[in-house]
Write a structure and sequence with these properties.
The chain is mostly helical and 147 residues long. It is built from 4 helices and no strands.
Length: 147
């Protein structure tokens, strides 16, 4: 039961944070002028970029433990699905979102504000897909563990 609570908290808070970025922080940033946007994007990207990898891995490990412990139950397939989605999201993030995030933190010399904001828009679009995938993983996890 403690493991289930920890997993639910870890996944839920992580998804909530990612949702807040997509639904609240980025839309507010877009209302600012270009210079203000770029000034604020960098510390957000740096802070979240430093914390999230550990949180993603912790959540994945907790999901895997739940999956192993419940591997001989009818819920196993949903937990495997949740774990597979989570693994996909980690690979997707490393492949596509992390490089963009790193460029937002430290833009290359000569990067124009327009280029930097286009990068941020691309990151935001990919991030929204990530939030949907994480939500699907969480739903599969919750159905499996609360059935």
């Amino acid at each position: 039961m403690i493991l289930n609570i920890l997993t639910t908290l870890s996944l839920g808070l992580l998804i909530g944070t990612e949702f807040a970025v997509a639904a609240f922080i980025n839309p507010i940033l877009r209302r600012l002028d270009d210079r203000a946007q770029l000034t604020l994007i960098q510390p957000f990207a740096a802070r979240l970029g430093a914390a999230m990898p550990f949180w993603y891995v912790l959540s994945f490990v907790l999901l895997l433990i739940e999956t192993v412990l419940l591997r001989h139950t009818p819920q196993a397939s949903l937990l495997i699905t949740a774990s597979a989605i989570w693994a996909f999201v980690i690979v997707f993030t490393l492949r596509f979102l992390v490089p963009i995030n790193n460029r937002m933190i430290r833009p290359a010399p000569g990067t124009t504000p327009e280029q930097a904001l286009r990068e941020h828009d691309r990151w935001d679009l990919l991030h929204r897909f990530r939030v949907l995938a994480l939500t699907a993983a969480m739903v599969a996890f919750l159905v499996a563990t609360h059935a």
